[in-house]
Amino acid sequence: MSMMDEYTPLNPCSTKRLLSPNVISLISIGSTIGTGLFFLISSILIKGPLVSILSFTYISFISLIILLITKELSCLKPDNGSLCQFQSYLLSRSIGLANNLIYWLSWCFTLSLELSILYSLLNSYLSVPYYTSIITIWFLLTLINLLPVNYFGLFEVFFSLFKLLFLFSWLFITTLALFGLNPHWEPIGFSNWFANWPTSFLGPLSLSNLLSGLIATSFTFQSIESIALTSGELQNPSPQNFNKIIKLILFRIIVFYLISLFILTLLVPYNDPDLSSLSSPFLIALKNSYYQTSSLLSLFNFIIFTTILSAANSNIYFGSRSLIALVESSNIPHSSHILKTVNGVPYISILLTSFIGLSTILLQSDSLISIFNFLLSTCASAGLLMWCLLLFSYIRFCHKINHSNWLYFASWFSAINIIFILLTNGIDSFSFSSYLTPFLFFTFWGVLHFFLNESSWLIPIDSIHFI
């Protein structure tokens, strides 16, 4: 085996372990419960209640597998952004670099996506200049990320209070509305499902409709794997603490994702004209529940704005930590400057990540809808690609230790399904952006393979070392 095949990371970035398991679970949820859940879910609801529920249940199962294998691999190597290092020492260095470069850029693009939504929310109530509002929000979020990580964690806890307040209040109010405890005292129940049976429940049912809904659904779960980006700053990276984090995230998925989606399908018909706008389906559901007072809607709109701020804040954090892991595993000349820290804060990686996110949205400010759709497609594909390679990394890990459990076979099942989703991403309306991420990955992989002078496309099992 060539010496270039060996995974020899740089000296690790000197971050500090200042985050508790509770804070890390809130940071992960802070990123997960954001634009995907509050806005992108409209592109799932238009598929009809049946497809929406099937898609969410399907991706929830895959997310469970991702969480479990992420926990196992993170316990093995709880380093900075360890999620972005698994592929380098279990698959190959070129695969790790290619995937992690795309993954890091996807966090920058996701930040752009969040900034576009924040501007849209602000602009619906205030006539604010585009550049001024975007740059102001970006500056504040970047400043928060430049604080010591424990203070960043406190901000995320604060943001999460608003998020939990909104979701629990929304669930309570809408549940009452379903039973007739609304301003009109009119039970809604399953009336929208049976309004024009079976079309009102099945929606525009077709195979392409189901498949196109999966890529959108997967974006709402993006960053579920992010606990492995925080492992380098977890106070005590023990299996017990990782188990605690996993349980907290799973509970929130069940409550905030599956239950919320079920209620949304009851209150928002798949052909509701408001779903075609950038308005949140959560607010549309309140309107359809006869809660149309401007003060209530304004309050909930403000809370949604705060939750998107939390998600954008987490995007910078996760992006900077994935960049750290990328650099640590690259050995690219002079790249070690990115690992510099002040009081444990990797300020260069933070500034670089946030700046690219800002420049992406500023350079394409003429068409907010078009940039939203482009970023959505590329970011969702990048997340799925990371999931897929994470699954294959775990499979190789099982081969290395000669151990096959149910999670090993579930990983094969999930990986094959993710590949199928990526291949059928453009089945509904073909566009180059639908396959841009896989195209870039294979291009980067091929170029890096020859540039690094690797003797094989995958590291031989016997040459894998857990370092």
Automatic annotation (TrEMBL):
Q: Where in the cell is it found?
A: Membrane
Mainly resides where? Answer: membrane
The record's GO molecular-function terms, alphabetically, read:
amino acid transmembrane transporter activity
**Where in the numbering of this chain does the Amino acid permease/ SLC12A domain appear?**
24-428
Q: Which domain of life is it from?
A: Eukaryota
Q: Which UniProt keywords apply?
A: Membrane, Transmembrane, Transmembrane helix
| One GO CC term, this protein | membrane
| Residue ranges crossing the lipid bilayer per the database entry | 21-44, 50-69, 101-122, 128-149, 161-181, 201-221, 249-270, 290-312, 344-363, 369-394, 406-423, 435-452
Q: How does it sit in the membrane?
A: Multi-pass membrane protein
Pfam annotation, one family? AA_permease
Return the similarity comment.
Belongs to the amino acid-polyamine-organocation (APC) superfamily. YAT (TC 2.A.3.10) family.
What name does this protein carry?
Answer: Amino acid permease/ SLC12A domain-containing protein
UniProt organism field: Hyphopichia burtonii NRRL Y-1933
